[in-house]
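tl;dr need the bound structure. longer version: we got a ligand (L-MYO-inositol-1-phosphate) that a collaborator sent over and nobodys looked at where it sits. i said id run it. heres the input, straight from their email, havent touched it
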Amino acid sequence: MEKLIHSVILEAGDIALQFRSRLDAIQVTKKGAKDLVTEADIAVENHIRSRLTAATPEFGFLGEESPETEGKTSRWIVDPIDGTHSFIHGQYFWSISIALESKGEISHGAVYAPLLHELYMAEKGKGATRNDQTIRVSDTIDLASAMVGTGFACLRAELGDNNLERFCRIALRTMDQRRFGSAALDCCLVADGQMDAFWEQHLNLFDVAAGALIAEEAGATVTDFAGNPGLNPEAVLITNGEILSEMLELM
Ligand code: LIP
């Protein structure tokens, strides 16, 4: 399965980069007030979907840009471009995310950031890698020394709880903060120790299914904002473990 995911995600990256090379000319459509989709998102998802479906016709498929199909025991969970706004603005921090769920559990995850030349992969129980090198979370032991990241779910900006108060509370207690714009990649940055924690609310499963597995396999804790273990896209908190209790106090 890893070989299939590896090839498909690299092909998808090439397609996204072709669109990026003519960014001024690509079509952008609004799905909602702040929810944009580009030709690139659709072309990348179509490619991933046709390749994965041809190889595993019995699996279901949940993607950001196309209707879901159900499978018997397994399904692919795909975000063709996570960080569409970053992509449209010609920035570096966007990624392609592919996860495989079997019997309700994410078994494989891959996140590829083509402009950063970073490919993160994990298989349940077998650890996580970045460009084939094993990765581990940081060993930062307190929030005062921590670099943390978040996102503001701009697509769901009309929701009352918009994360700004929480961000201000946490920012006062940490060494520094980042908002990179791709939740999938944010999870991987915790996995390889570039950040000590990441949180975001009101995400979709396809944003974080792969990234959360990669983080967990690198030693991260994956909980909701109350500390319940496991991935809840409505409230995702990923930490290096050491700073989990301090983060929970502030959520
Ligand atoms: C985006 C995320 C981003 C988050 C946005 C959005 P998309 O995914 O990864 O970090 O803050 O609300 O969900 O829509 O570009 O795939």
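gonna send this back to them w/ a short note. The pocket of L-MYO-inositol-1-phosphate is lined by residues 64, 79, 82-84, 151-155, 181-183, 200, 203, 207 (CB under 6 Å).
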